[in-house]
Amino acid sequence: MTIEPHVTVPFLSLARPATPVVVGEIRRDVRAFAERHGAGPDALAAIELAVSEAVANAVVHGSIDGADTVLVEADVEEGELEIVVVDAGPGFTPGPVPGLGLGLGLMRDGALAFEIRDRPSGGVEIWMRFPLGE
Q1: CB within 8 Å of 62: residues ≥ 6 apart
Q2: Which DSSP string do the residues of 67-124 spell out, in sequence order?
Q3: Is the CA virtual torsion 50, 58, 91, 98 positive or negative?
Q4: How many helical (H) and strand (E) elements, i.e. helices and strands, does the chain have?
Q5: Alpha-carbon gap, residue 70 to 52, rounded angstroms
Q6: Which residues pair with 72 in a beta bridge?
């Protein structure tokens, strides 16, 4: 007997080249997914801002000349939207990086929960949870 895989929660998985044009595309796709699953105006604004910042960071810091992929996965569980953004870059570095450094704070401010970590296999993973229905 063959058992077919079955996902029991709403799920979105996007893998795109790490180029600037994908920031808007991924933001729109995640917004549409969140909206379909009950995200209200305040939640949508926080989700869009956080996803834009996370994907932009993956493009700028997690890729060499757009040759890598940005992976974004989202699912809905118990009235909350969980989003994970993954890049294949070098991970966090001890020195300064270009930019104002505001993006991580913007992602964290709108989220119920937020974590960022280096991946053992390389790259960085940003994990965020947002309330739906607000």
Answers
A1: 18, 68, 70, 87, 88, 89, 123, 124
A2: -SEEEEEEEEETTEEEEEEE--S----SS--SS-S-HHHHHHHT-SEEEEEE-TTSSE
A3: negative
A4: 3, 5
A5: 12
A6: 14, 85
Please give the helix or strand (H or E) that residue 16 lies within, else none. Answer: strand 11-17
Alpha-carbon span 25 to 57, nearest angstrom: 15
pLDDT in tens, 77-104: 989 999 999 998 877 666 555 554 666 6
| Domains observed in the chain | 18-131 (3.30.565.10)
Nearest-Å Rg of the Cα atoms of the chain is: 15
Question: Which of these, 6, 5, 132, 9, lies nearest to 73 by C-alpha position?
Answer: 9
Token couple for 92: 């966090």
Q: Tens digits of per-residue pLDDT, 46-55? A: 999 999 999 9
Which residue reads 């209200």 in tokens?
Answer: 40
Kindly report the number of other CB atoms within 10 A of residue 80's CB atom.
17
